[in-house]
Each structure stands twice: as C-alpha cells, then as structure tokens.
C-alpha cells in the first residue's frame, strides 16, 4: 500500500500564498474580482447591514479590498493577514488613500490581542484555503462580542470548479463530495470539505446559524461577460459560492 502524502501545514499554505505575483494583486479591482463584485459582496454586505461605527474584524484580509469597502461604509476595521506579500500590498493601499483600517500581520489561527471584542467578523474565501481550518474558525468566534455576527464565505463544495465541466459537457459533474481533499489552483490549493463540515462546528463554538445564501449571477451580467468568459452562464443556473451567517450567543 502506498503511504498517503503528508497533510500540508498552515505554514506551507501561507508560504505558497506569499508567492502570489504582484500582477495578480494589481489585477484585483477596488471591489475585488468578478465573482466578489457580482456574487459575494452583495450578499455579504446585505447580511452585515448598517456597519457605521461597528468594530469589524476582516480575518484573512488578503489585498484588503473588503476592509476598504467596509471602512468606506463607516466601519472601524481591523484586518489580519498572514502573508507578507498581501499584507504589504494592503498597507500600500492604506498609505496611498487612508481609510483608517488597522492592518495586522498574523496567522488567523493564532490571533494576537486585538483590543477588545468585535461586533462582526468576516472571513471571506479563507477557510477553504487553510489545511487546519478549525482553529481559524474558533479564533473568529472567540473574537466576537456576545451577540456579534460571524459571516464566512467559501467555494460551494457541491459546485467547485464550475466553469471547466460546464464548458466541456454543458452541465456540472461531481463524483466526490463527502471526502476531504486538495484541489490544485493557480497559486495555492483549495481544500474541499462537505458543507456539513463547516456548519457542524458552529454550535460547539457558541454560534447559532442564522442564514445561508447561495448567490447566482444575474442573467444580464452573464450575458455581458459571456464573450470574454465562455461558460459564464453556468453561474446563472448553479451557484459557485456559499455565504454563511451565524451569531454568538449572549452571556447569561
């Protein structure tokens, strides 16, 4: 029997994301990439509601685009990012156009003291990139005040890598769902886990589930994007992302 490959560590994942080229960061718009602009951001911002004067933790902030969006809406944002490349990029953006975001370089599985509890924690497109992800979810829960809201987004595990099979077959094909496995990507891998793997961790952390959204692409947006992105109509019929909201229990 061939021994299984060793599980990558979180440090391995951080190192691989740290090698992302500057051109990839510059390609991000002020609202993130296409999927974030049209599918993730509208749902996430709706779930957060009015964020004026709210203390928000952006856990795994990447380039800082979401931190800047939230700060522009009046939130007091602390952004934590482990990779030096993306942390430095976000700091550059803050220096060029200050928005009052506090950037911290740290592993989100081991958050440093951050001066009090947060009204909301957002962890967008992060957990599915972390090999040992449960400590990250626990750290997000611990950072919340009682009654505070956690919102996380991941690739929908039932519809990952949607475009390739749609372009080939005109439909989506899935052969492995209940297993956990690595998905090779351009810069660093994602990790497939069934949706239940994430949801069942919420109650032990004192979080009660409040909403799950599976955003679809508006047909008009798909039609406009189709010449540059064949198969984009698949995002109208199927969802590629899931957005989960939960609240921390109040203290007795």
From TrEMBL:
Keywords: Methyltransferase, S-adenosyl-L-methionine, Transferase. Transmembrane segments: none annotated. GO terms for molecular function: S-adenosylmethionine-dependent methyltransferase activity. GO terms for biological process: methylation. CDD domains: AdoMet_MTases. Residues 57-152 form the Methyltransferase type domain. Pfam families: Methyltransf_11 (PF08241). The keyword S-adenosyl-L-methionine applies. The keyword rRNA-binding does not apply. InterPro entries: Methyltransf_11, SAM-dependent_MTases_sf. PANTHER family: METHYLTRANSFERASE, UBIQUINONE BIOSYNTHESIS O-METHYLTRANSFERASE, MITOCHONDRIAL. This is Class I SAM-dependent methyltransferase.
């Amino acid at each position: 029997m061939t021994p299984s490959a060793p599980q990558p560590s979180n440090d391995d994942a951080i190192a691989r994301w740290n090698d992302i080229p500057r051109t990839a960061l510059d390609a991000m718009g002020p609202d993130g990439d296409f999927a974030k602009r049209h599918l993730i951001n509208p749902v996430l911002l709706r779930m957060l509601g009015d964020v004026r004067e709210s203390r928000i933790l952006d856990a795994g902030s990447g380039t800082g685009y979401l931190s800047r969006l939230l700060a522009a809406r009046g939130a007091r944002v602390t952004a934590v990012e482990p990779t030096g490349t993306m942390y430095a990029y976000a700091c550059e953006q803050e220096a060029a156009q200050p928005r009052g975001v506090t950037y911290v370089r740290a592993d989100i599985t081991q958050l440093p003291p951050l001066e009090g509890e947060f009204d909301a924690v957002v962890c967008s497109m992060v957990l599915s990139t972390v090999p040992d992800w449960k400590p990250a979810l626990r750290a997000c829960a611990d950072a919340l005040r009682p009654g505070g809201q956690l919102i996380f987004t991941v690739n929908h595990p039932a519809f990952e890598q949607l475009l390739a099979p749609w372009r080939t077959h005109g439909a989506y094909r899935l052969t492995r769902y209940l297993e956990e496995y690595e998905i090779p990507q351009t810069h660093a891998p994602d990790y497939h886990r069934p949706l239940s793997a994430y949801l069942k961790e919420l109650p032990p952390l004192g979080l009660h589930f409040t909403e799950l959204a599976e955003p679809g692409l508006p047909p008009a947006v798909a039609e406009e994007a189709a010449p540059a992105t064949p198969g984009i109509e698949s995002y109208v019929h199927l969802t590629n992302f899931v957005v989960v909201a939960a609240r921390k229990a109040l203290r007795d």
